[in-house]
C-alpha cells in the first residue's frame, strides 16, 4: 500500500512541477542520508525525455517510476565513487563525451545546446556531472576487476576462423536491443517474465528496457547497435538468426541473469574481412562483456549495503 501511495504522490509532484517546478522542495528519498528531492526527479524526467523521444509516449506514472529508479541508481554510484575519487578532475574526457552526446541529439554546437537546455531549466554542468559519474564508475570497475578478466584468445581465434571460413566474404549483422534482468527468485521467474512481456506490449521494448533492464544499455532503451554474427556466442546467434525484424527472442540464460533480445534489423555485407581486425574487435567485445557483468555484480553488492529510505 505504501508503494502505491508513493507513486500517487510522485505523480502529483510531476504534474505540478511542469507548471511551476514546485514552490516547495520536498525530500522524496534518501540514499545513505543523501537526499533526492521532487525537483531532482522532475529534472531527471526532463533529462531522460530529451535523450529519448520515445519517452514522450510513456505514461506519466511510468515516467515517474523510471526517473526515480534512474536517479536512485545514479545516487548509489555517486556515493560509492566518492570513496575513491573526487569530481571535477576529468574535464577532457567529460567534454569529449559531452560533444558526442550533443552530436547524437542532432544539435550543431555547444551554444545551441546550452540555449536548448536552458529552456528546460537544465545546465551544461548537470550533464557533465552525469557523464563524469559514469566515467568514474567504469574506472572503479576496471580497477577492481581487470585482473579477473578471463579471455581465452585461442578459443576466440578458433571460433573466428570457423565462422570466417564459412562466410564466403559475406558478413551477417544484427541490430539488437536487450533487456537484462536478474529474477528475485526462481519461483518468481515466470511472473517477472510475464510482467516484462506485458510491459513490452503496453509501452514498447525500448521503454520497457529503461524500466526493467539492469544493463548499462538501459539508459539507451536497451540499444546495443549493429553486432556481427561472428561476434556473438553460438547460443545467442542460434536464438536470433531466425527472428524477423522487431521480433523478440526467447529467454536466454547468461552469467549475470536472464536476457531478452529484440531484432530491429539485419543485413548481409559483402566485405573483405581482415582476420586481425575481427580478432581485435572480438577481444574488445569479450572484454567489455565481462566488465559489464562485473559492473552489474558490483552494483548489486553496493546497492545491498546502501540504506535507501522513502520520506
What does this structure look like?
The protein has 311 residues and is of the alpha+beta class. It has 2 domains: 2-146, no CATH class; 153-304, Chitinase A, domain 3, CATH 3.10.50. It contains 11 helices and 7 strands. The chain has helices spanning 2-20, 38-51, 60-81, 91-104, 110-118, 124-145, 153-165, 189-203, 205-212, 234-240, 275-304, and strands at 27-31, 34-37, 170-181, 223-228, 252-254, 257-270, 308-310. The chain has a 4-stranded antiparallel beta sheet, with helices on both faces. A 3-stranded antiparallel beta sheet has the order 2-1-7. A hairpin with a 2-residue loop joins β5 and β6.
Give me the CATH architecture of the largest domain, please.
Roll
Q: Would you give the CATH topology of the largest domain?
A: Chitinase A, domain 3
The biggest sheet amounts to: 4 strands, antiparallel
The strand count comes to 7
